[in-house]
Specification:
- The protein has helices spanning 2-5, 7-17, 23-57, 59-65, 68-86, 88-92, 112-146, 158-190, 192-198, 201-225, 227-241, 243-259, 268-275; strands at residues 95-98, 103-106.
- It is mostly helical.
- Strands 1-2 form a two-stranded antiparallel sheet.
- Strand 1 and strand 2 (103-106) form a beta hairpin.
- One of its GO terms (cellular component) is plasma membrane.
- GO terms for molecular function: melatonin receptor activity.
- Belongs to the G-protein coupled receptor 1 family.
- High affinity receptor for melatonin. The activity of this receptor is mediated by pertussis toxin sensitive G proteins that inhibits adenylate cyclase activity.
């Protein structure tokens, strides 16, 4: 939402003016917010994968490891690491305006060592962690399905399996959409003098917009694979098309709930009050 409210309108202005006219401060802030969005996405996907791994593969210890207090700490830690991973861009000077995409973004040619570090820490390592977690979950799902371990105490609910499949598809699409841009950055960082001039502009632009198109795909994935999301999408569409009907349905549900409320049990005290 923050990206849609701030960096994207600035990119539209750059398109209209065919140049960046908003000054360096807006350029830096816009690039920083875009970086938070990207790194926050991959770190949250990694955190969710670890959570699903613990929930399905180590269910007996899950409640202790993911208590409410611990879960809040994990969430804060995820976003703290996201901020710490994005701040070094200011010191390296890697947030620059790129006329090919009309946006202030991470410049891959500023520092080879920093670009390699970004690709490894922000993409390859999380990719390996998530792959490990989901691979272990798939192994357990296959074992339970074929009853390789009939004496196992671990059981997988259908709802847990559907949620796992949803997040697995989200992860696969994230890797597919963001992979080309990261591998281009890695190739440029390894040999910037030879590789950077030989990368076609259309390839970089396509990989860039393919990466950010991933955010649009998530809503489609949740809608296709999650029944709760489908119901809420229908409610949103109904509210947009016929808000009055939605209000009447909501009021009707509330009235029926009150009517269907069970009456208190008849006791001696109730009978006494009635007789009085």
């Amino acid at each position: 939402m923050v990206v849609a409210v701030y960096p994207y309108p600035l990119a539209l202005m750059a398109i209209f003016h065919n140049d960046w006219t908003m000054g360096d401060m807006h350029c830096q802030v816009s690039g920083f917010i875009m970086g938070l969005s990207v790194i926050g996405s991959i770190f949250n996907i990694t955190a969710i994968a670890i959570n699903r791994y613990c929930y399905i593969c180590h269910s007996l210890q899950y409640d202790r490891v993911y208590s409410i207090k611990n879960t809040c700490c994990y969430l804060c830690l995820t976003w703290l690491l996201t901020a710490l991973a994005t701040v070094p861009n200011f010191f390296v000077g890697s947030l620059q305006y790129d006329p090919r995409i009309f946006s202030c973004t991470f410049a891959q040619t500023v520092s080879s060592y920093y670009t390699i570090s970004v690709v490894v820490i922000h993409f390859l390592v999380p990719l390996l962690v998530v792959s490990f977690c989901y691979l272990r979950i798939w192994v357990l799902v296959i074992q339970v399905k074929h009853r390789v371990k009939p004496d196992t105490k671990q059981k997988i609910k259908p709802s847990d399996l559907r949620n796992f499949l949803t997040m697995f598809v989200v992860f696969v699409l994230f890797a597919v959409c963001w992979g080309p841009l990261n591998f281009i950055g890695l190739a440029v960082a390894i040999d910037p003098v030879r590789v950077a001039p030989n990368i076609p502009e259309w390839l970089f632009v396509t990989s860039y917009f393919m990466a950010y198109f991933n955010s649009c795909l998530n809503a489609v994935i949740y809608g296709l694979l999650n029944q709760n999301f489908r119901k809420e999408y229908k409610r949103i569409l109904l509210a947009l098309c016929a808000p009055r009907t939605l209000f009447m349905d909501t009021s009707k549900c509330g009235t029926e709930g009150l009517k269907s409320k069970p009456s208190p049990a008849v006791t001696n005290n109730n009978l006494a009050e009635v007789n009085l």
